[in-house]
């Protein structure tokens, strides 16, 4: 990894402080197998919960009888919608999803009933003894029908007061399209599609709910946002916040798939009903039905440019299939629409984004949050435009690259660093990997890999570039804040800082970064990051690449407040001051600058706090006879503002790039007539170590003016540009259109 | 039924085991060894990798009864094996230092598999590492740091494999 600025040991920097490759505090437990994930939790007298789910994408429930299931020895409870103590529906943004379906199911996998039993297998058998009859209804499975107003209505009565199947239409109008069309010498049009991607985190949805003596419940769960879960649970359980206490258990990956609740309400209902601790843990198949997915998308792009390769306008129509319930669909389509013009200076734009209800699986947050789809669309059509113009695709990108001050289609001027051209130049300057004949021959070096399907015949190389931009943090007027508490005390005569936040550690390393900040700000060696829970104020979600910025800012603020209190105590050594005056504690609420919603008519508004950029150059080799693909190298360049922990930053970039590779060539949850055809790791393929190439990284650290330490969000940008870079490389190798990802062997074999 | 076998060098016994229970379930739920992970329970992800008489297996695909009278080594059995008062095994330390651990759910299975690879081959090429670990899925890292960790740990195995053993990692 090379860096634009020195990220090595700095003189005067605290040991393992900000900027150091500090090691994870949970690392030893994780390598020993001693780290407690949600699915590892146990409690005295615990029983197992299980969920009955609808086999149909659309049906009326005509009979539901739990008597036989209740009689099975070992079963302690069977619950239905009648047993929901509070509000019958929940949801992150709009409470439209039944806690348990009453008379109607709207997607395959919708929860209908719950069982608690003394053994997970007993619970599963009890599910089969629940007598349920459905009357199947016509399912709406085509999002184009949904947007046109054809076909059945998914929600007869919408909670948000609207009608029909359009969740949201985002309309952005920028400049003057009539004028733009006159100025354009060349027009390039394309229709691009993205399949349904799954987060495929490895740790299954799981949680343990323990009934309290006060009539409340303590819940240990793997989630991305404890306080939002608490909010939704309180409503469904009919309990006040002090009776619904959450603690973060070990989280086995998240990537957006743990933003919506899964087992939380169900496990708590069973615990409160039975008076016994209840554990729920999905298996892999159930996990595919137990969380939302990345929206599949169909996108129509039209670019107009002058003959010398200046983009004049973009017209884009985005159609995202949100599935049966809202989840975060209205925000995902907004984010996709905001960035449909890509990382370019585009003076005129007409963007229409639609997310719709269907009877397909619900879709919501996944790393990149809508911007992944639109980046794929715009970057694919950029290569199309380059072909039409007869200009090198990289050159076309450089001529139009966004800079600081570029006005987005939403009217907001980009502030902060916008090094789009610099990232692309760095990728271009990197030497290409050797051609196959010059490489050390290895089983993995050619398409087909270990299967040894070619010795190099019919193998063609291709190179593709892509760049992406997205907003960091919550956008569009959401009041985003994060709270931290820091306590400095003496333990064994040595100062120890304790940090308490509700920030969810999902693997990304927020626990490490919080400790680094405390070391830097307080000059102490020993830092303890307490378990995240709802006993401290809201941290907001580990999503939108925001948690290091927001909780990092809160920890920094709390540390500074502690320092001020120490200063007020007088001069002297830290240990002496603490010995004389006792522990010093402070709480701090971090807020970023205000954002504003965009208007409904033209989509204008200062909606964002920051923008982050990443670019990829993919080198692929394609066996054109068999359609097999080898991504030989996936080089990337990204501006991270400040690498708070360079080792963790590289991990985020490599991991995000891998998920983008998965979307490009292998990952798709296949849905036919509303039914998922491949809910297993046998049939839903994610990249293995044999599929992943080297991911060389060029890291820029251009300080962001508004953030703690100048950092910028890191986690999502790599998932934007990796997919279209690979798709563009495949098009370069084959000459095929390849409009849809994931690209399958069938799309290539024998067509070149 | 009752199942008796050796887990990490210790004789263990599980009672009331239902015939359909996997070795993974018995380790996790009956023997207090939750280190082996339950990511797919269909033999695709490698998170539950343990060694059965020295051979790496997906413990989710092994019926508990098949472990009767055999030797099982889980991730919990790796630390403290390489010397008198040794702490983490070299591969465990290397995973931490290389940044190969993020969420860590795949880590136990990868460490058992990598440990077995290095025991056989203390100087693996990158292709060797990729082949040996191709049955272990990781969703967080993109694998680059996992390769780093195995490369980093290899010298530690070169020095203590004077008497290589594929029979058992146990003393």
From TrEMBL, chain A:
Gene3D superfamilies assigned to the protein according to its UniProt record, in alphabetical order: Aldehyde oxidase/xanthine dehydrogenase, a/b hammerhead, Aldehyde oxidase/xanthine dehydrogenase, molybdopterin binding domain
- A GO molecular-function descriptor: iron ion binding
Q: Which domain of life is it from?
A: Bacteria
Q: Which residues form the Aldehyde oxidase/xanthine dehydrogenase a/b hammerhead domain?
A: 32-138
Listed InterPro entries: Ald_Oxase/Xan_DH_a/b, Ald_Oxase/Xan_DH_a/b_sf, Ald_Oxase/xanthine_DH-like, AldOxase/xan_DH_MoCoBD1, AldOxase/xan_DH_MoCoBD2, AldOxase/xan_DH_Mopterin-bd_sf
Q: Which Pfam families match?
A: Ald_Xan_dh_C (PF01315), MoCoBD_1 (PF02738), MoCoBD_2 (PF20256)
Q: What is this protein called?
A: Molybdopterin-dependent oxidoreductase
Q: Which organism is it from?
A: Streptomyces coryli
Automatic annotation (TrEMBL), chain B:
Keywords attached to this entry: 2Fe-2S, Iron, Iron-sulfur, Metal-binding, Oxidoreductase
**Which InterPro entries does the entry link to?**
2Fe-2S-bd, 2Fe-2S-bd_dom_sf, 2Fe-2S_ferredoxin-like_sf, 2Fe-2S_ferredoxin-type, 2Fe2S_fd_BS, Beta-grasp_dom_sf, Diverse_Oxidoreductases
List the GO molecular function terms: 2 iron, 2 sulfur cluster binding; metal ion binding; oxidoreductase activity
Where on the tree of life does the source sit, at the highest rank? Bacteria
Report the protein name in the record. (2Fe-2S)-binding protein
**Domain 2Fe-2S ferredoxin-type: from-to ranges:** 1-78
């Amino acid at each position: 990894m090379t860096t634009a600025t020195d990220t090595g040991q700095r003189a005067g920097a605290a040991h393992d402080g900000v900027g150091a490759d500090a090691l994870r505090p949970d690392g030893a437990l994780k390598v020993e197998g001693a780290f407690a994930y949600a699915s590892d939790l146990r409690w005295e007298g615990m029983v197992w919960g299980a969920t009955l789910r609808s086999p149909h994408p659309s049906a009326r429930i005509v009979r539901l009888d739990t008597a036989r299931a209740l009689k099975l020895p070992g079963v302690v409870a069977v619950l239905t919608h009648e047993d929901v103590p509070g509000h019958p529906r929940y949801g992150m943004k709009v409470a439209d999803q039944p806690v348990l379906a009453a008379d109607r199911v709207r997607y395959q996998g919708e929860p209908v009933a719950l069982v608690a039993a003394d053994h997970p297998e007993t619970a599963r058998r009890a599910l089969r003894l629940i007598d349920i009859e459905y009357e199947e209804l016509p399912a709406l499975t085509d999002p184009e029908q949904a947007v046109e107003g054809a076909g059945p209505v998914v929600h007869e009565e919408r909670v948000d007061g609207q009608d029909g199947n359009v969740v949201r239409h985002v309309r952005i109008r920028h400049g003057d399209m009539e004028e733009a069309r006159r100025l354009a010498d060349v027009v390039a049009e394309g229709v691009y599609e993205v399949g349904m991607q799954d987060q495929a985190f490895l740790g299954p949805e799981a949680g343990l709910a323990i009934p309290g003596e006060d009539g409340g419940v303590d819940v240990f769960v793997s989630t991305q946002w404890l306080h939002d879960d608490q909010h939704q649970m309180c409503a469904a359980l009919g309990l006040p916040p002090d009776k619904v206490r959450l603690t973060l258990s070990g989280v086995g990956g998240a990537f957006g798939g743990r933003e919506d609740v899964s087992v939380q309400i169900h496990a708590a209902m069973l615990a409160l009903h039975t008076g016994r601790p209840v554990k729920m843990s999905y298996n892999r198949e159930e996990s595919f039905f137990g969380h939302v997915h990345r929206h599949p998308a169909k996108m129509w792009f039209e670019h107009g440019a002058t003959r010398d390769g200046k983009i004049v306008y973009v017209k884009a129509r985005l159609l995202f299939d949100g599935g049966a319930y809202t989840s975060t669909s209205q925000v995902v389509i907004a984010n996709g629409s905001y960035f449909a013009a890509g990382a370019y200076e585009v003076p005129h734009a007409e963007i229409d984004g639609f997310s719709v209800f269907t009877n397909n699986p619900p879709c919501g947050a996944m790393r990149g949050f809508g911007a992944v789809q639109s980046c794929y669309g715009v970057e694919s059509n950029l290569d199309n435009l380059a072909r039409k113009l007869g200009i090198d695709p990289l050159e076309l990108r450089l001529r139009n690259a966004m800079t600081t001050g570029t006005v987005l289609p939403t009217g907001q001027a980009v502030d902060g660093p916008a090094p789009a051209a610099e990232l692309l130049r760095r990728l271009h300057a990197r030497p290409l990997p050797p051609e196959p004949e010059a490489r050390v021959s290895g089983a993995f070096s050619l398409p087909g890999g270990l299967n040894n399907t070619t010795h190099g015949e019919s193998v063609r190389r291709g190179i593709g570039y892509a760049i992406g931009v997205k907003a960091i943090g919550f956008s569009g007027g959401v009041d985003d804040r994060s709270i931290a508490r820091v306590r400095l005390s003496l333990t064994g005569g040595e100062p120890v800082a304790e940090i308490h936040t509700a920030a969810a550690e999902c693997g990304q390393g927020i626990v490490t970064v919080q400790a680094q900040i405390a070391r830097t700000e307080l000059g102490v060696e020993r830092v303890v990051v307490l378990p995240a829970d709802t006993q401290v104020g809201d941290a907001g979600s580990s999503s939108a690449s925001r948690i290091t910025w927001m909780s990092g800012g809160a920890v920094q603020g709390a540390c500074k407040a502690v320092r001020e209190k120490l200063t007020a105590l007088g001069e002297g050594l830290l240990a002496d001051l603490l010995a004389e005056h006792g522990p010093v504690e402070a709480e701090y609420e971090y807020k970023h600058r205000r954002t504003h919603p965009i208007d409904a008519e033209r989509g204008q508004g200062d909606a964002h706090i920051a923008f982050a950029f990443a670019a990829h150059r993919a080198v692929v080799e394609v066996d054109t006879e068999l359609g097999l693909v080898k991504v030989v190298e996936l080089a990337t360049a990204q501006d991270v503002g400040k690498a708070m922990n360079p080792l963790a930053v590289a991990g985020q970039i490599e991991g995000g790039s891998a998920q983008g590779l998965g979307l490009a060539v292998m990952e798709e949850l296949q849905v036919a007539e509303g039914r998922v055809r491949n809910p297993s790791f046998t049939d839903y393929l994610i990249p293995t170590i044999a599929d992943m190439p080297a991911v060389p990284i060029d890291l820029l650290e251009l300080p962001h003016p508004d953030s703690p330490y100048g950092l910028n969000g890191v986690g999502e940008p790599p998932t934007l540009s990796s997919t279209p870079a690979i798709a563009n490389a495949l098009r370069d190798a084959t000459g095929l259109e390849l409009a849809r990802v994931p690209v399958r062997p069938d799309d290539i074999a024998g067509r070149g | 039924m009752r199942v008796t076998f050796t887990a990490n060098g210790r004789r263990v016994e599980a009672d009331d085991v239902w015939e359909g229970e996997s070795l993974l379930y018995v380790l996790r739920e009956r023997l207090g060894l939750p280190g082996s992970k339950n990511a797919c329970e269909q033999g695709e992800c490698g998170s539950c990798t343990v060694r059965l008489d020295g051979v790496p297996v997906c413990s989710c695909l092994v019926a508990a009864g098949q472990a009767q009278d055999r030797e099982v080594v889980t991730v919990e059995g790796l630390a403290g094996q390489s010397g008198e008062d040794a702490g983490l095994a070299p591969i465990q330390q290397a995973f931490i230092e290389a940044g190969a651990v993020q969420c860590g759910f795949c880590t136990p299975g990868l460490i058992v598999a990598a440990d077995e690879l290095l025991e056989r081959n203390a100087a693996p090429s990158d292709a060797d590492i990729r082949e040996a670990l191709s049955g272990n899925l990781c969703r967080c890292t993109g694998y680059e740091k996992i390769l780093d960790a195995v490369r980093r740990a290899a010298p530690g195995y070169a020095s203590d494999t004077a008497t290589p053993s594929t029979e058992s990692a146990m003393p």
